[in-house]
Amino acid sequence: MHMIYKRILLKLSGESLMGGRAYGIDEVRLGEYAKQIKEISDQGIQIGIVIGGGNIFRGLAGAAKGFDRVKGDQMGMLATVINSLALSSALEAFGVEADVLTAVRMEPVGTYYSPSRAAELLRDGHVVLMAGGTGNPFFTTDTAAALRGIEIGADVLLKGTRVDGIYTADPEKDPTAVKFDEITFDEIYSRNLRVMDLTATTMCKENNLPLVVFDMDTPGNLKRVLSGENIGTRVTL
Ligand code: UDP
């Protein structure tokens, strides 16, 4: 099967790892994701992954409850390491070689991230999980995904969500919302669409990293996006 991208950066939200639960990691959902990732890894796609941590802790939500914001963000970043370890172990259970690289040093939990180390592992056919966000508070994992995608020279940033693309309004709240097949970064600003935070969007725009938002919770969709099927929404300059 012909694949339209060779090297991708896949962003998964922490929340989606909850599956039907209220907190933490659902092993069924984890297994479904690992299976989809294996499918495209078997096709020779080079895969970098950034996972969020919202299923465990978010710095902003913590601050609202009285946590120090910087410490809360550090907790959130550690949550992304937990999620990355979980997905790497699910991938390994499927026979996929997967490595966790961390934005801050924490051997032996993961190897310290560098773009060259990530590229080397990708060339060797390993799935590379880039954990710990950007390593800095006040950023999001969407921004980490944009940054890592640019650093490793990914062809595209794939944002897997539970919604099947970008809509004129939140489709879970507004039944009249209409989906875009394609949209530009500038339209995201002008229409005030909440696709990613502005820092992440701007990084993609300024570095010409295309973004595809798609529904990752439907099995087989990751492969469909890579084979060029018109699912999700593609964002370009
Ligand atoms: N975070 C951070 N710096 C980063 C990335 C993440 O401080 O570079 C923290 C932040 O507190 C955030 C949490 O990690 O709330 C989890 O990430 P995010 O909210 O992006 O996860 P998602 O919404 O994708 O599950």
Automatic annotation (TrEMBL):
Coiled coil location: none
Q: InterPro entries from the xrefs?
A: AceGlu_kinase-like_sf (IPR036393), Asp/Glu/Uridylate_kinase (IPR001048), Uridylate_kinase (IPR011817), Uridylate_kinase_bac (IPR015963)
The entry marks the following residues as binding UMP, namely 53, 73, 134-141
Q: Which GO terms describe its biological process?
A: 'de novo' CTP biosynthetic process; UDP biosynthetic process
Top-level enzyme category: transferase
Activity regulation: the record says:
Inhibited by UTP.
Cellular component aspect of the GO annotation: cytoplasm
Keywords for this protein: ATP-binding, Cytoplasm, Kinase, Nucleotide-binding, Pyrimidine biosynthesis, Transferase
- Domain Aspartate/glutamate/uridylate kinase, by residue range, is 6-215
- The record's EC number reads 2.7.4.22
The positions annotated for binding ATP are 11-14, 54, 58, 161, 167, 170
Q: Pfam families per the record?
A: AA_kinase (PF00696)
The subcellular location is:
Cytoplasm
Q: Which reaction does it catalyse?
A: UMP + ATP = UDP + ADP
Q: Which GO molecular function, any one, fits this protein according to its record?
A: ATP binding
This protein's pathway: Pyrimidine metabolism; CTP biosynthesis via de novo pathway; UDP from UMP (UMPK route): step 1/1
Q: What does this protein do?
A: Catalyzes the reversible phosphorylation of UMP to UDP.
Entries under PANTHER family matching the protein: URIDYLATE KINASE, URIDYLATE KINASE PUMPKIN, CHLOROPLASTIC
Subunit structure and binding partners? Homohexamer.
Q: Which family does it belong to?
A: Belongs to the UMP kinase family.
Q: What is this protein called?
A: Uridylate kinase
Question: Which species does this protein come from?
Answer: Tannerella sp. oral taxon BU063 isolate Cell 6/7/9
